[in-house]
Amino acid sequence: MEEFKKVIKSFLSKKTKIRRIVFFVLVDGLLLSFSLYLSFYLRFDGNIEPEYIDKFWGYLIIFLSVKYIVFALCRLYKMSWSYVGFYELLNILAANTVSFLLLTGIIFMLWFYKLFSGFPRSIPILDFVISLVLIVMFRTSKRVYLQSLSIRNNSDTKRTLIIGAGNAGEQIVRDMRRQKNSPYTPVGFMDDDIMTHDVYIQGVKVYGGQENIPGIVDKLKVELVLLAIPSASSHDIRKILSHVRKSSVKEVKIIPGLNALVDRKISLSDIKKIQIEDIIGREQVTIDRKIVTSLNFIHGKTVLITGAGGSIGSELVRQVLIFKPNRIVALDIDETELHQIDLEISRYAREIELVFVVADIRDKQKVETVFHDYRPEVVFHAAAYKHVPIMEKYPEEAVKVNIFGTKIVAEAALSFGVEKFILVSTDKAVKPTNIMGATKRVAEKIINALNSYGKTKFISVRFGNVIGSRGSVISIFQEQIKKGGPITVTHPGMKRYFMSIPEACILILQAAAMGKGGEVFILDMGEQIKIEEIAKEMIRLNGLSPDVDIPIIYTGVRPGEKLYEELLTDTETTGPTEHPKIFVGKDVNNNHENILTDIILFEDIIQQRQWAWIRNLLFELVPSYNPSYNYKEGSALNAPEQNNRIIGNNF
Questions:
Q1: Is 293 found in the same domain as 323?
Q2: For residue 497, is it within any domain?
Q3: What is the predicted pLDDT for the residue at 264?
Q4: Which residues touch 613 (CB under 8 Å, ≥6 apart)?
Q5: Could you tell me which of 381, 389, 382 has the C-alpha nearest to residue 411?
Q6: pTM, rounded to two decimals
Q7: Crossing angle, helix 86-112 and helix 50-73, to 10 degrees?
Q8: Residue 206 has what DSSP assignment?
């Protein structure tokens, strides 16, 4: 039955195409006939001599035959009537020019053999001009009609001011004109390029630079502002928004950045509501795909990704797919998140084997079974506990996952001959003031120590906060705004680095491809941004005013938090790499071989439930560990007995 439906559908489609071609051929025949007749009429000032009238049908057959053949070869009968553009107009010009040259040659030959004696030489020239005008008018008529219709029926559309008079702005206005049900009516452009000022693009005037936005909004009665600059950085967007907020317009939308528009034209479907990610994390990052591809880093290999259900892990799955591995093994303890990523990517990754494994990285036997069964050649280790306040309450869990879990997965990679092992680390591992950061720093040391044990190349990649991760400050603020506030900020001076999840994962792949083993790669996070400013921007994006509609309250710095993050330890320096946003950290104190035996002490501490000793051992393993609250002095070997769980500041 399905096959029958497909046959009927194909038949109807072919029938429609044939009807369209017949329609164009008939209309072209009428226009070309009229063009030739009008050429004679003009040539003889409205009084065509009888001898030419008698021979007109012969002339017409020759002219139509040549033009039909050339038009068909130039694909004039495969053009879309609704979407005629510059390329199609060039085709029409080319078809008419070739027809003119061929007809001129034929007429000359017939004249030479005295078959066309006395044929006026000006007729082909007149016919060329007239037929070109008529064909262009006919081919563009439907588009002109649709655009005029959209202009007339704009009572339900929003008067839109477009910021950016470049290619993106031109494309978006063209699509606004073309679509019948477009919700936008373009009324003006704004652009800082003075060469575009007072110029009309798609019939829309460029009124000046962005500083003139408030005045133009009032003058043109603008209802919506659209940012159409894909290359704009977060700094540029913030600057534009500062001008927009001085005007009466409340609605602002944006088109995606360059990374989201690779090899794709811009259309109305790309327009979206502006998000906080656009304001603080829209830096354009490029990846040297040639390096990743030429080194055969991923192509045709089995790649294991731990923590594959998380924010970074799931994006790594998506990014790795691009480089066509043979198999991806996605491992996570959360079966719901694995199920979600399975549903998302299974639809478009049919050529690549996808294996989803529910497992705990602390389960050594299960981890080794996964390595034995699938033999991964590249491992991205993204599984970790990351929430600072929770890990302060449960330090033993941070040790079990971030330290022992990393050691188990890394040693399995070493045993089964993995080519590269990449640890996803954090800026909180630098001069840590919390359990999470200290345990991640120990994980970095484990990776560095194992690098000298075999052929596996162990690499760490360190970066800051990612926008949109689960439980991030941005998602918390969004929920607080939905409830009408207040927004809670720990301290007015609190700053953090921010990077989008795709940007971070792109740079992780690039760093991993470049790594030779033993490096700590550090991603350039740009400037740190005040959490307070993020809160205010998010309130404004919702059309509200900070401390008027939504109050901001300060709750105090939580245990383990820094006012700002750092990317280098006291013993590290940085060196450049091939990528401008990736640096390699060089540790002058690079002797971490004892770490593998030292961390065994954690097992006894956890077994004896001596939670305070965990912190004391971390002091010895990570000398730069410096909690921002009071703690009991002592070493891991002589820590006081502590039978109760330590929560918050009570230790």
A1: yes
A2: yes
A3: 53
A4: 605, 636, 639, 642
A5: 381
A6: 0.63
A7: 130
A8: B
Q: List all residues 6 or more positions away from 354 whose beta carbon is below 8 Å from its beta carbon.
A: 327, 328, 330, 342, 345, 346
Residue 253 belongs to domain spanning: 153-274
> Are residues 472 and 559 both part of a single domain?
yes
Structure tokens at 520: 């700590």
428 noted as active-site residue: yes
- Give me the phi and psi of 432, to 5 degrees please: -65, 145
Q: What is the pLDDT of residues 241-256, one digit of tens each?
A: 888 888 888 888 888 7
| Closest among 505, 503, 401, 407 to 461, alpha carbons compared | 505
Q: Which of 563, 479, 539, 529 minimizes the C-alpha distance to 280?
A: 529
Question: DSSP secondary-structure letter at 32?
Answer: H
**Distance from CA of residue 228 to its chain's centroid?**
15
- 113 in the same domain as 88: yes
Instruction: Read off the pLDDT of residues 533-579 as tens digits, 9 standing for 90 and up.
Output: 788 878 887 777 787 788 888 887 776 566 666 555 555 556 666 67
- Same domain for 313 and 265, yes or no, is no
- Find residue 47's DSSP bridge partners: none
Q: Report which DSSP code applies to 183.
A: S
User: Domain check: are 233 and 318 in the same one?
Assistant: no
Marked catalytic residue, from 400, 428, 431, 536:
428
- Top-confidence residue, 332 or 11: 332
| CATH number where 175 lies | 3.40.50.720
The string of DSSP codes covering 58-71 is HHHHHHHHHHHHHH
User: Is there a single domain that holds both residue 423 and residue 565?
Assistant: yes
Q: How far apart are CA 509 and CA 78, in angstroms?
A: 44
Q: Are residues 91 and 159 in the same domain?
A: no
447 touches 483 (CB < 8 A): no
For 405, the token pair is: 């879990």
